[in-house]
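Need tokens for this chain, all 279 residues.
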Amino acid sequence: MNAQLKPLSETRGYLGGGLIAAVLGLSPFLTPLDAYLQIVGEMQEELTPEKAAFFADRAALEPWAAAKFARTTGLQIIRRNERYDDAEFAWAKAEIDFEAGDGGNGETKTVHPNAVRDWGNPDEDEEPPMYVTAQAMWGMGVHPATHCYVNALIGFDDHRVYRIERDDALIADIRQRAARFWKYHIEPRRPPQPVNADDVARLYSRDSGRAVEADADICDALERLHNEKRALALHTARKEVAEFQIKGYMRDATTLLVHGQPALTWRSRQDGVRIFRLK
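Here are the structure tokens for all 279 residues:
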């Protein structure tokens, strides 16, 4: 961690809806430590061309998503992309993607088709993932509303609209936990405990040069690590042998059939690279 800590006034300095699921430990993308580092300005992420393209595509999709929402629900969108300050906590804010004509807040989500299993069917009163519901509740706590729409685009063909009703007890619990996070982690600059190996790497990005003696548990973990590395090397070698055998059999063929059904493809991309993929 950086010993020269910036004042919060010079960092992000607030907790918004995009980080609340991480603070609660519900996000599949960010940990509580990630949220902490973003708020205090200690997370330096490189904006790669791929990430820049992703953010640009997402921004370009927002007007289209808004139009689909209006056509599907018959509701007018009266405001978009507004950030609101909380009435109680100076550090709490909410970025509301859109506000519907019936007074509801709105969140727009672009979802990869591979993640569709996490999204229920709104026609059967099923819900979006918990991390999305947490963000919706946070927004209704900061910018009061009786309900929030989640406008989800799954790929380009699957459009789902969820209506999440306000739950005052749940909102109060989320706000209490957020206040505790701010008081015990942000204000004293005390990072949350790491929850995975990436967290540990971020938390201790520089070595001190010191040595530590392993205790019994760490000796066991070290032995497991050695065993898993050996097993992984063996499995990789077996995979490469099988792949070599199959490619040698297919040669220039695109598809491998088993009992007449496609089992594997080896297709050429536009750049000439052939992609080997199991069905």
